[in-house]
Amino acid sequence: MSPMRILGVDPALGTTGWGVIDQQGSKLSFVVGGVVRTDSKMSMAERLKVIHEGFSEIIETYKPDVMAIEEVYVNNNARTSLKLGQARGVPIVVASLARVEVFEYTPLQIKKATVGYGRAEKDQVQHMVKTLLPTATFTTHDTADALAAAICHAHSSAMQQRYGT
Question: Is 123 a residue of the active site?
């Protein structure tokens, strides 16, 4: 059985985290991770284009089987939520066009699957990602959160296979 390659995404307009892991049975392996950054001085269209180009390259280079992306939580500021929704839509479209199946998880689901507690702090998530993927290298919470989304999917898909749900 060949490993499943999972691309995890932590969406944002300024710094979108991403991480790729391989899952072979219950074993998870870190492949690569990083961020796609946009400049706040750019227009919205230019920023979305940068995210599109970044994810097109990531998907073409690493050829994931699936993508796990964090769902948007509704912010008190409607403009902020709208901008985040637009930024989040770009990797979803890029993956869909590349025929990569997309799975969406809430922050609570991701934290629970990674740390065991849905209200975990970012430092706890980062620590558990490093524990579960000892070779992982990342310098930002954004990459750690993206890897946590990938781990969440790996755990969810393993459960579905085991229990047929």
Answer: no
Q: Where are the beta strands (DSSP E) in the chain?
A: 4-10, 15-24, 27-37, 66-70, 101-105
* Sheet-wide strand order for 66-70: 27-37, 15-24, 4-10, 66-70, 101-105
Q: What is the pLDDT of residues 24-42, one digit of tens each?
A: 988 999 999 999 999 999 9
Catalytic one of 10, 39, 121, 145:
10
Identify whether 10 is a catalytic site residue.
yes
Residue spans per domain, the chain: 4-163
Q: Which of 46, 53, 60, 70 is catalytic?
A: 70
Known active-site residue 65: no
CATH code that applies to domain 4-163: 3.30.420.10
pTM of the model: 0.93
